[in-house]
Task: inverse folding
């Protein structure tokens, strides 16, 4: 196989509502002297279809592996968590404001010029509640003031957030026609990136073609005329881990993420391109009025009945470790273990006693009930693999051992998101297995505080005033002080069993014939070698 270069950007801003074993991390390797192939084709595989190709309406982590080919962002981050310029040339930040000076030479794939107004309109579109963006209050708050002139964009918020630039700065920027009609990019692209989508066969493959005129990457990055940049990128949907591994070994794929036992057989046979950690297992308990799990003692009891170590092993196929905090995705701006010391420890006898004292007592049939109502949990989870299903069954068995029933609502990604985001879902669904990944904890608060759907994404109607107070305090700080304050806030969340993260998984992207080099470790070029 001959050699060529390609652009590969870690999807730092990708939002993952469900645990994903692959993706984002630090590329291995350095500069290489492989001979480039002119106008070659690069074959890349995803584990599932990304869905609608508009990030502001689709939080899928998989989509984050597609958008960087066609779209650019204001900044990107290196492995130290430092922002580097892309569409933005300069920026200033405070806990309540961001000001970007933006470049004026980026051109959309439809031929129009990207303006500061269009960049600002991306964030206005998200902030408008009428658009029902899944990024509202996650990337930009609904009450944000968004202004622009001919050369700059300023975003001002009422609530402070010391990490706001991570969410806003890495958001893919769409061209004006895409914002005017999001359906036009449901299965196509319209951005200022190196590639433009030319074919989309949902569930099978997506084809992108190089834009030869492209020249607006970060300093030192390849352009559309750089010798060896592939002419075509084919992104195939290959759900089966073993199949992806086999295609890498047979050299029919150049790049793919593989986990579990199949990753073991790739070790030493093909190269590891990138590694990273993602939160891959967690439980939300509904706190909607009238739900059994609105009672703090019930939540703690249910958590004490679970063997979180066993659940971690099953959910990760023995490849994971216990989760430490909310934000584990690269670049890890804060590093601490708030979950380990503060989550309720397994104690089945204590769990049974707490449920008895809460009025949920066992009947002659061994099932718990209160005021004539049995304690049966409606349990929603995404059926994305055998490990997830096995984890859900293990939870049900461990809860069953203390007299708690479970009704499973396992569904594929689209149906799962639809079910938990319906208005009033938190009054029907007691428990959700959910993992959300982002480099900073503040961006994830949309899932743990605030409005329930359709006004927000607080799927389980979580309501912990002490946690909210600690979050507000944490957001007043910056740097190391902000991280320390966030550790304290998360400790309260775990002690109250508002959210119970139990697993994080190290994922790997494998390549064959590819060596990575780059302008830094998060924005890299690759060259395929013989």
Result:
């Amino acid at each position: 196989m001959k050699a060529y270069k390609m652009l590969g950007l870690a999807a730092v801003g990708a939002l993952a509502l469900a645990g994903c074993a692959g993706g984002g991390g630090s590329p291995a390797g350095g500069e290489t002297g492989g001979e480039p192939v002119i106008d070659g084709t690069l074959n890349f595989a995803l584990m599932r279809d990304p869905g609608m190709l508009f990030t502001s309406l689709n939080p899928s982590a998989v989509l984050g592996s597609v958008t960087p080919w066609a779209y650019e962002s204001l900044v990107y981050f290196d492995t130290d968590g430092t922002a580097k310029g892309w569409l933005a040339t300069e920026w200033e930040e405070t806990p309540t404001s961001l000001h970007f000076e933006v470049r004026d030479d980026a051109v959309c794939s439809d031929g129009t010029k990207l303006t500061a107004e269009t960049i600002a309109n991306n964030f206005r579109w998200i902030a408008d509640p009428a658009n029902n963006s899944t990024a509202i209050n996650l990337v930009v708050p609904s009450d944000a003031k968004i202004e622009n002139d001919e050369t700059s964009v300023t975003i001002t918020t009422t609530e402070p957030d010391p990490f706001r630039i991570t969410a806003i700065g890495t958001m893919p920027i769409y061209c004006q026609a895409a914002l005017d009609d999001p359906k036009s990019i449901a299965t196509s692209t319209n951005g200022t990136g190196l590639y433009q989508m030319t074919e989309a066969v949902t569930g099978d493959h997506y084809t992108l073609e190089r834009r030869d005129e492209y020249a607006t990457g970060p300093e030192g990055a390849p352009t559309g005329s750089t010798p060896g940049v592939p002419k075509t990128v084919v992104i195939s949907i290959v759900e089966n881990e073993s199949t992806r591994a086999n295609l890498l070994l047979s050299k029919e794929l150049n790049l793919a993420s593989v986990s579990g036992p199949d990753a073991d057989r790739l070790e030493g046979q093909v190269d590891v391109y990138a590694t990273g950690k993602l939160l891959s297992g967690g439980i939300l308990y509904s706190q909607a009025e009238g739900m059994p799990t609105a009672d703090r003692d019930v939540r703690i009891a249910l958590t004490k009945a679970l063997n979180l170590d066993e659940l971690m092993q099953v959910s990760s196929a023995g490849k994971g470790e216990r989760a430490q905090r909310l934000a584990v995705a690269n670049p890890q701006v804060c590093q601490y273990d708030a979950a380990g010391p503060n989550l309720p420890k397994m104690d089945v006898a204590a769990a049974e006693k707490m449920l008895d004292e809460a009025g949920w007592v066992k009947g002659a049939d061994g099932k718990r009930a209160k005021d004539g109502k049995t304690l049966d949990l409606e349990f929603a989870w995404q059926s994305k693999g055998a490990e997830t299903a096995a984890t859900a069954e293990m939870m049900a068995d461990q809860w069953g051992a203390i007299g708690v029933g479970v009704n499973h609502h396992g569904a594929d990604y689209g149906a799962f998101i639809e079910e938990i985001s319906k208005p009033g879902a938190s009054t029907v669904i007691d428990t959700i297995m959910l993992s959300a990944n982002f480099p900073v904890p503040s961006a994830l608060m949309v899932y743990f505080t605030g409005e329930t759907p359709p006004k927000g994404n607080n799927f389980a109607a979580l309501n912990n005033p002490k946690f909210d107070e600690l979050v507000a305090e944490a957001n007043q700080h910056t740097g190391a002080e902000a991280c320390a304050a966030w550790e304290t806030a998360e400790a309260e969340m775990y002690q109250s069993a508002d959210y119970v993260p139990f697993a994080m998984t190290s994922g790997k992207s494998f390549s064959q014939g590819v060596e990575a080099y780059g302008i830094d470790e998060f924005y890299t070029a690759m060259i395929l070698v013989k």
